[in-house]
Automatic annotation (TrEMBL):
<dbReference type="InterPro" id="IPR028349">
    <property type="entry name" value="PafC-like"/>
</dbReference>
<feature type="domain" description="PafC HTH">
    <location>
        <begin position="11"/>
        <end position="133"/>
    </location>
</feature>
<dbReference type="Pfam" id="PF19187">
    <property type="entry name" value="HTH_PafC"/>
</dbReference>
<protein>
    <submittedName>
        <fullName>DeoR faimly transcriptional regulator</fullName>
    </submittedName>
</protein>
<dbReference type="Pfam" id="PF25583">
    <property type="entry name" value="WCX"/>
</dbReference>
<dbReference type="InterPro" id="IPR057727">
    <property type="entry name" value="WCX_dom"/>
</dbReference>
<dbReference type="InterPro" id="IPR026881">
    <property type="entry name" value="WYL_dom"/>
</dbReference>
<feature type="domain" description="WYL">
    <location>
        <begin position="152"/>
        <end position="219"/>
    </location>
</feature>
<dbReference type="Pfam" id="PF13280">
    <property type="entry name" value="WYL"/>
</dbReference>
<feature type="domain" description="WCX">
    <location>
        <begin position="246"/>
        <end position="320"/>
    </location>
</feature>
<dbReference type="InterPro" id="IPR051534">
    <property type="entry name" value="CBASS_pafABC_assoc_protein"/>
</dbReference>
<dbReference type="InterPro" id="IPR043839">
    <property type="entry name" value="PafC_HTH"/>
</dbReference>
Amino acid sequence: MADQQPLQAQDKLAFLLVLVPYLIDHERVSVAEAARHFGVPEQRIRRAVELIAVSGVPGETMQYQHGDLFDIAWDDFEQNDMIVLTNLVAIDDSPRLSAREASALIAGLQYLSALPEAADRDAIRALMAKLSRGAGGAASNVAVGQDLHDAALSTIRRAVADGRGLAFEYAGPRTRGGTRRVDPLRVESIDADWYLRAWDLDRQALRTFRLDRMTNARVDDRPAEKTIGDVVIPDTLFQQSGGDVIVTVELDCSALPLVADYLADTADAEDADGRVRIRLAASNGFDGVVRLVAGLPGRAVVLDPPAARAAVRAFAEAALAAE
């Protein structure tokens, strides 16, 4: 079996982080078996084991002593190609997760369990319970804010699990409302907003729908025509269509990650004042641009077209008049 391309430093670290627990769990395993398990050449396993054998945690003197390093049964390794760890380092006295760390992980697992493609929810719940018990302190009761969308999420999950289509009433920034018939593919979130990525049957294209604009979601009797394996889903939530207007916005470069999913193309280079210009694909109503600018007070300015500037100005004037 030919060796693969050399691993980068971060890849080597990631490989060691999964290899060490594997060796501990198996106690005695052959190089060939480990290579088959990880799908790598045997020589890569041997090099990794040799690296593990010179790894460890320095003692109180900050110098490595024999007991501060992992060790293996060298004769068995060199003569029989068998791996046996004979000295483990920082396993029994490794620190527990703090309450804050455990709470963050639990919140992430709660989010994961809400996704329709998350199949093994029993395993997720068991892991959440283990995190709560194993934390260094009592984990906070953390809930991911999705209460308003629970009914829609449950319906979407059922449609995906049964391989069925989905129908719902939808009023988006580009439509006045109507029934949409889709094949649900994925649910994602940005901050507090949840989105459905789905194949729109009427438009025969991938579309993104906000769950808070969906009503009366129901599972169709028809089988889904498209599944997540049939459609290439871009990393960004929104893609430009022929009816979009390109809006140029200037904002602080520190705010760029907050709008990455909305960019129509790449951002310009940062100027001397730490500002960048971006272009967004927007509908003629500019609702999305107005919400974006309102969510970045003092950090974003619409430059073009004039109609988009007027929409932002009208929103600001209405907000001031309501005070």
